[in-house]
Design goal:
InterPro entries: Glyco_trans_4-like_N. This protein has 370 residues and is an alpha/beta fold. It is built from 15 helices and 13 strands. It is globular.
């Protein structure tokens, strides 16, 4: 049994936090002793943490101020491997590991397209972290774990990081028995009593997710009775509602906020759409495939091309092209819903926890673990 530590800012509603919570449980299933440490603490994804995973909250006011407390924790507790996630947390973890003499056991991970993600947050501290991180990645002894080949390639091509500074591990998106689990019951009224085709999307209401392009595409659909639901919250809520009103689709569009079980909604929908401008490895796309529901995705950097096998599993369209997106959605709605269902489910199976955790163990411990 190996003692493993996962370091996060908190367990808020982001995809990285959700995947780290799932990874912690999968590592326990693989026979390891796992601690999940939060620099601050709390968040809605706490509910996803396996009760066998130990939780530690440093309760720092911000990530940067957690360095002394984290260094002290690392000195007092011996772990066989330490894994940090997200760029600003990586920088904090590298500093703390250097101070505590545990740098040889530290691994950091990048979850998104670095060249795009660094422009999302204008905070001076965050910008400094993004400037500093690639320099540190060249110096630390272990390669950066990237969630997809595209994320790794982007880090190498757009920063000072070298090919030998990166490695790849798949996200543990799905339970091992996902094929046998019936979907939950949808909670949205349009999905409970469906009277017309329903399109569903899931994600933060942020520019990265391209929901403005999706609404524009929705307005162009020839299927005039179709409905669109986007599950999620974020700063663009009012903008998206205003856009729907301008395009005269407000009566067929809804932003109900977060869903406790978003995949129950997707499983009941007629089409799932990923309209993102960039990603790392979009977990929602994998989850949607696992339900068998038809999907359409942008060919955004990075992840969808790999997950959808360059369009062999489901349609890929150009980023920010509402006409192409509308056409692809329209084609999917016109076909029998069960067409190619098994192909979609089989494509999702690569991201089962039991498979993905082995790629992490190989990266963290330098070998495959049974």
């Amino acid at each position: 049994m190996k003692r493993l530590l996962i370091i996060l800012h908190d367990l808020s509603a982001g995809g990285a936090e959700k995947m780290m919570a799932r990874l912690a449980g999968a590592l326990v299933d693989a026979g390891n002793d796992v601690t999940l440490l939060m620099l601050t603490g709390g968040g809605v994804n706490v509910a996803l943490v396996d009760p066998r995973v130990k939780q530690v909250e440093l309760r720092s006011a911000r990530s940067a101020s957690a360095v002394p407390a984290l260094a002290s924790f690392l000195r007092q507790n011996h772990f066989d491997a330490q894994l940090a996630a997200l760029t600003h947390v990586n920088v904090v973890a590298i500093a703390a590991a250097a101070l505590s003499g545990t740098l040889a056991r530290l691994h950091v991970s990048e979850r998104n397209a670095f060249s795009r993600d660094k422009h999302v947050n204008s905070s001076l501290r965050v910008r400094l972290a993004y400037w500093l991180a690639p320099l540190l990645y060249r110096l630390i002894p272990n390669p950066v774990i990237c969630v997809s080949r595209g994320v790794a390639q982007d880090l190498v091509e757009t920063t000072v990081a070298r090919t030998q500074d990166v490695t790849i591990a798949d996200n543990p998106v799905l339970d091992n028995d996902f094929r046998d689990k019936p979907p939950g019951c949808p909670t949205h009224r349009w999905l409970q009593e469906k009277t017309s085709p329903v399109i569903v999307a899931v994600g933060r209401l942020a520019p990265q997710k391209g929901f403005d392009t999706l609404i524009e595409a929705f307005a162009r659909l020839p299927v005039r009775n179709a409905r669109l639901i986007i599950f999620g919250e974020g700063a663009l809520r009012d903008d998206l509602l205003a856009q729907a009103a301008r395009l005269s689709v407000a009566d067929r569009f809804d932003l109900p906020g977060y869903a406790d079980d978003p995949m129950a909604q997707v499983a009941a929908a007629d089409c799932f759409v990923l309209s993102s401008r960039f990603e790392g490895s979009p977990n929602a796309l994998v989850e949607a495939l696992s339900t068998g529901t038809p999907v359409v995705s942008t060919r955004c950097p990075y992840g969808p091309q790999d997950i959808l096998e360059d369009g062999a599993v489901a349609p890929l369209v150009s980023v920010d092209d509402p006409q192409a997106l509308a056409q692809a959605i329209g084609i999917e709605l016109a076909q029998p819903r069960g067409r190619h269902r098994q192909t979609r489910i089989d494509a999702a199976a690569r991201f089962m926890s039991s498979r993905a955790v082995q790629t992490y163990l190989a990266a963290l411990l330098g070998r495959q673990s049974s």
